[in-house]
Write a structure and sequence with these properties.
By secondary structure, the protein is an all-alpha fold. It has a domain of about 60 residues. About 65% of the residues lie in helices and about 0% in strands. The chain contains three helices and no strands. It starts with 5 loop residues before the first helix and ends in a 14-residue tail after the last helix.
């Protein structure tokens, strides 16, 4: 191997510094504790929001499956969501 040039060392140090600079805000954000505990009412509201967002993806998931089947040249009889397991 050839001798390492000085600019390569500076480049490595710059990449490490930029990586740490980009990661640290995330570490600080997630290391803080919650300001208040989550009660039953708030947790129920969050769960309802999650259910609503997941159910909104149902049509998009059907379209994606249909497109994927077309790419594979597979023709399924139907793509439906089970009523008992939405």
């Amino acid at each position: 191997m050839g001798k390492q040039k000085k600019w390569q060392l500076y480049l490595i140090i710059a990449v490490i510094v930029l990586t740490i600079y980009n990661i640290l805000p995330t570490v600080f954000y997630y290391s803080k504790p919650l300001k208040s505990p989550i009660d039953d009412k708030h947790s129920s509201a969050i769960a309802e929001q999650i259910v609503t967002r997941v159910n909104a993806l149902e049509l998009q998931a059907k379209e994606w499956l249909d497109s994927f089947c077309n790419l594979l040249k597979v023709k399924p009889l139907s793509i439906d969501v089970k009523a008992e397991q939405p």
